[in-house]
Design goal:
Layout lengths: L1 H52 L4 H8 L4
Length: 69
Amino acid sequence: MGEFISNVARLLDETNQKQFNKGIEYGIQQGIQQGIQQGRLEERIEIIKKLIRRGFSDQQIAELIEIEV
């Protein structure tokens, strides 16, 4: 009986560890995706700033960047 309980406890620990690892992997992937999105947003902002400095109108910028004014 003691061995059975030990085996069940070990299986539960392994299952919990696998679930924990999956959660960590999911969190890492979400963080990477958020980082990519943030980077893209920052890049677009820098491009818009450059276009403004070069005298492009709001409408021209909106058309080039494909955003609504």
